[in-house]
Every structure is written in structure tokens, then in C-alpha cells.
Amino acid sequence: AAATAGAREGRALTAPGPIAASDELPRRSWASLAALGLLMAPGTARGAEGAPADGGSVAVYFGRGSFWRMQHEVTLWSLRASKAGQYPDGAFSPALAGYAGGQGKDGDGKICYSSMNGLPYDKMGYAEVVGLQIPSAALEDMATRFFDDLAAGPRKKGPKDGVSSSGFESGGAAYRDVIGLPGGLSSPLLPALERACAGRAKLLPGEGADPDTLDKGAVYIYDVAQFPFNRAEMYHQYHDDVSQQFSAGYRGLKKRMQQAGLVAPIGCAE
């Protein structure tokens, strides 16, 4: 991909049974989804680094394998949860691909997929995640969908994964299973997470740059204040998965989010 110059616009999202990756929705549903994030009142665009003062919504992120697949899944989950809970327009912000769970920045003061001046994101301990703002009341629903996905089988192959004579080779800790929420394991929202998990995985404290979880039956729980969400490059937003091309309606959300100012260059090579 060609390198794209641009000032870092470091806005992370502050303020909009199991679902298979092949579960596509009609174009009209995708239009409704776009409206979910784009019909918020001016000045209320929200992101994944913290919750509004009213406590009615919460910043979260989910990571499991490549964020290309997970962004599609979390987008579907938020649409389904929004409908199930009868939440108002704008209650869920758009789900954006990003990085979390690591520490530090490259020589240019950025966190990038690849870096010409320092280390790429995974070498600094970051995981690929999808961040968004959701109603606090919807956390259990969203987390249940995450753990349903976890229980459905091994994570899907991502671009960093490989195959050898001995079988599947993990792309590494960048693909570890993670959830971020305010307070981490000390969050008052933890009971909702535990109900969603229902004993299907071990919930471990995210300490930063944690090892891979492949075949470990564990999920790292990060405090979003200590390990905030960092939005990824435009190239990675609403991207097809390695083994599946998503619908034109889904891929078209990138342009809609660009027009809304929610997806923009972050100063990394594209």
C-alpha cells in the first residue's frame, strides 16, 4: 500500500446465539447501521478511551485474532444488541479497528501497523482490537456474543498467522483474546462480564504486552484508562477478512465514516 502522509488525528472513539462471519445483512440493515453512528447530535461523538460523565454508556474494546474479522463481527453484534435492547439512535458508536494492551510509541510518537522509525505495534506489545462506546446496560449482551464466538471454536486465521508441516502457526500475541473496559477486573461492570462468560474462559488481568492466548482458554481484561484504545490506519477500517470478502454495504461504511470524520489518517503509512 502506498504511504500516506498526514497529521495524527488521535481521536479514539469517546462519545457514538453466536454470529458467524458469513452472516451478512441486507443493504437496508447496513444503512440503519450507518445511521446508528451518524445520527448522533453534534458534539456527542464518542470514543473508546472513556465513558461520559452521565455513566449511561461505557467505552469497551474486543480483540480476538485479526481486527479485520473482528470489526465485522462487533459491528454486527452492536446492530443486533441495539435492536434487542431498543436503544435510541446513537447509543452505540461505530466499531473501529485499533490497537490496545501495549506500551510506548515508535520513534515518530505513533502506534502503527508497520513503522519506518521504530517498532510496529505488535513488537510494542499491542493487540489488534475493535473499540466502541455502548450503553452500560448492553455490556452483558455484547460480551455474551464475544464468549459465544470464543466457544464456537479456534479463532479464524489472520494475515499474521501461518501454516507449517506441524499445522497452524499463530501470528503471535497481537491476536490474543482481550476485552477492555473501565477499571479492568476491578470494574463495577465485572459481574456483567462474568455472567456473559459463564465459566467458558479464565478472565486474567491485562498487564500489558501479554502473551498469546491461543489454546489457553483465557481472556485478558484490560483497564481502558491504563491501556487505551488507539485507532488504526484507514486502510484497516472495514477491510475484508483474509478468507472472506464482506458485503459491499459493509465495506462502504468506511466512506460513510470518513465523511463523518470518524475515520481519518493517523500519520502512519497506509
Description:
- The chain has 270 residues and is α+β, with helices and mostly antiparallel strands.
- The protein is 23% helix and 16% strand.
- The chain has helices spanning 27-38, 67-85, 139-151, 190-197, 248-251, 253-259, and strands at residues 57-63, 96-100, 127-135, 162-164, 167-169, 178-181, 202-205, 218-223, 230-231.
- Strand 4 (162-164) and strand 5 (167-169) form a beta hairpin.
- Helix 2 (67-85) crosses helix 3 (139-151) and helix 3 runs parallel beside helix 4.
- Mean pLDDT is 82; it is low at 1-24 and 35-55.
Strand content: 15-25%
User: Going across the major beta sheet, what is the strand order?
Assistant: 7-8-6-1-3-2-9
Number of helices: 6
Instruction: Supply Rg.
Output: 17 Å
Task: Quote the average pLDDT.
Answer: 82
Shape: globular
Task: Outline the low-pLDDT stretches.
Answer: 1-24, 35-55
Approximate helicity band? 10-25%
Largest sheet: 7 strands, mixed
The secondary-structure class comes to alpha+beta
Query: What is the tally of beta strands?
Result: 9
Distance between the ends = 6 Å
- Secondary-structure element sequence? HEHEEHEEEHEEEHH
